[in-house]
Structure formats: structure tokens, C-alpha cells
Amino acid sequence: MNKLGKSSRIVELDGNQLTREDIQMIVKGETVCALSEEAWQRVRKSRSLIEEHIAAGKVIYGVNTGFGKLSDVSVNARDVGLLQLNLLRADAVGVGEPLPENIVRAMMVLRANALAKGFSGIRPQTLQLLIDCINHGVHPVIPCKGSLGASGDLAPLAHMALLLVGEGSAVYQGERMSGAEALARAGLVAVRLEAKEGLALINGTQAMTGVGVIAITEAENLGYAADMAACLTIESLRGITDAFDAELLATRPHRELEQVASRIRTWLAGSRRTTAQGELRVQDAYSLRCIPQVHGASWQAVGYVADKLTIEMNATTDNPIVLPDGRVLSGGQFHGQPIALAMDHLKIAAAEWANISERRIERLVNPQLSGLSPFLAVNPGLECGLMVAQYAAAALVSENKVLAHPASVDSIPSSANQEDHVSMGTIAARQAREIVHNAARVIAIEMICASQAIYLQQAEDDLAPRTKLQLEWVRAIVPPLETDRAISAEIEQLALALLAERIE
In this chain, where does the modification 2,3-didehydroalanine (Ser) occur (predicted)? Predict the structure, then answer.
């Protein structure tokens, strides 16, 4: 059986030390994962406690009772396995387009890591099959919509779990097929669920967290790109650098504000395009002068989100939870509110990078503000130049403002009002990633406009060494406009490159 993984390193899942870097390596197929021996010991102990309770005839939610509002309905001991299978089938009601493969893989890794903590009562062979699916590249098809983000991400995780029993749909080696066929082609064998296992697989926040883990890495890359785009625009418009003075900024000691300004000072070092206060003008507009304050505030939010995701990646989000002393307690560890609020923070942070970027785009293309050729056209009038590129940026920014409305303030009761407050965290996570991608397109447009402004002024040789390298990188994807041409595909290509690579 061929496994993914080009590295000799194995990421050990122990439920406590998983990092975003580990997830990225597994998601990209650069390494495989396995449980640590200590984790297996905890899993086996947790399972034995569940079996002891069942043998003693104890009533345990979701083990020998119904779910949600049906928790008071007892289930016969002979049907506890069927109960778990029915749970997966009933909860697999996701709709919409399938989640991207990288998010699906992240979800699988996160769920395996949560189960590795040993509080869920799953059987070792069921958990091993989940790990085998990750390592062999067998990916369940998971629709992107349908989770309330409380009682766990039930619908998305049910679609994931159906694969393990040989049901649902999956993708293997680029081909979509039934779950049963995908397992067979990979040389894997489906499991038959026993008590508690279905609930252990689907009660958790791994869909919202999986989306969040991918989105936060893209957002961090976007933040560096926003800082670099601002530098190119400053040089294009001969901006004033006194606003980024370290002693000035130290009077308002937000760490992220100074970090942004430090990057700008470093990247603009050696530029012959920047100006001093009073040389051409006394002050720049806010979209240039306040870059550290605005970008820095977004970086503050990103830091908060990254911290909450790191905690959630190594958390137990199951219900009920099997404690080492033998107690099986029902609680609310599955509730997605901590991640819902974090994702809403990320939405606003990324939207603001785009908002201020669009204002810089306007300054570049508007001849009354830039003193440059209208819309950066070579032959204005005959050509429109980048006029409508600014329209596209404005449309994206406006769409982001709608998406940035916090999902976490909404709640719709479910399960006959038993589950009467939900987080909508998965909606917030999906919206956050959409905003990040929209913002990347806006930043790409700013870089294209700044590149064109530099081209029209023939100012390449006067740029700072670092920004000149960035300009060359941008132009390898989007050459200067010598006349009008369609650049839609180039904007998209540049935006994806900005999300995938970190500018240093």
C-alpha cells in the first residue's frame, strides 16, 4: 500500500502538541502521522471504561440513549452499534459544494488528534482506520454547509465518519467514488461501529477549526503581502516616510503597529523614491500615513485568532467525556463559540487590509490624487488602463463588508429547543476564508497598479533593493500594461501566489 509522505519524519499525534506546521505538512502530503504510544494507552483505557459501564448497565448519554431531545429514550443493549451507525446516516445532511481537499485533510488530522487525548471512548481500530485514510490519501467528500457549530460540527463530521464504515462518497487518487470503493482501492477495510463511536467521531469543532487553520495561515501570508503592497504604493506615489519613524511610533506602544512600521522601514531602505516631511508635501493621506496603525490592528486580531486555534487544535470537544477516574460526564465542550468569535475577528481583520488597500488603489489610478496618467493608461482615452481594476477592488471590498457581519451573534434553537444556543462558528470560518481570498485579490490589484505606476514613471532603478525584487516577482506574473488587455486571470494567479507564499 502506498502512503503519502515524501519526508522521513512522522508527525506523532498525542492530543497535546499538534502545531499548524505539523498540520500543513500532513495536509500537503509531505509526511504521515501516527499516534504516540502514550496516546494509544489513553485510548485503550478510555474504551475499556466505556465497556465496563455498559456491562454494568449504566445509562450513558449517546451510548445507550438517543441523542439531543431524544436523550431520555433508552436503547436496548443489542442496538447500541446500530444507534451509532444511524447517527452518522441521519446527521450526514450537509449541502453545498464539497470542502477543498486541504480542509478535509485538516479536519481528519484534527479529529484524530482530539481522539488521541483519550477522552472519547473510541476503539483503537476505528481510530487507526481514520489515520490510515489520512496517510493513504482517502478523502471523504464533505459538503461545506449545514453545521450550526454546536453539538459539534455534526453534519460535516458525519460525512467524514461515513467513510470509515464504507459509506458516503470519497476521493482517491483524484477520482470520486463510493466510500466503500475508495477503502478497497487503498487496501483498507471498513469498521463496524460499536457503542459511543459514532458520537466520538462527529461531536467536535473540527470543521470550523480545520477551515480556520487553513485560513489563518493564508491570512498571515496576506498580512505580509499587504505590508509589501503598501511599500510599492508609497514608492509609486513618493510617500513620506517620517510617519514610520520608530521614536514617533514608540509613543503609542502597540507591538504590532511597530512591527508593521519596522517592516516598512526595512523594505524601503535605500529607496530614492520616498520623501521626507515637507519635501513634496507636509502629510500624506491616511491610507499611506496610517498604514502601521491600520495594518497593525489587523495583525493584533490575527495573533488572537492564531492563539485560539492553537488551543482548539489540542482540545477535547466531545460529549460525553470519559474522564480517567471512570466518570462519564455530559458538558458543553463541543460548543464552537470560542472559535466562532475568533473567526469573526479574522473576518474583520482581513477585510480591513482590503479596505485600506482599495483606498490606495484609488490614489494610484485617480489622476487628481496621483498626478499620473489617468487610470495608469499608456494612452488614456483610447485606453481605459486600470480603471475597472479599481471597480473590481471596490466590489470585493463591498462584498467583504457584508460577509464581515459577525456570524457568532446569531443563534437558532435546534433539537426541539434542547440545543437552544448555537455558535454558527463554521459559517464564520467559511466566511473568514472567503474574505481572506477576496482581500488577496484586492492586494494583488494594488500591487499591479503600483507596478504600472512605476512602469509609467520608469522608476525601477530608484526603488529600494527589496521592493525592486518584489516588483520583478509581480511582473513575472503580471507584466506592465503597454496597452489594454484582459488581466482577470493574472489577478487571480497573483492573489493565489500571495496566499501561498510568505513575503519576508
Answer: 151
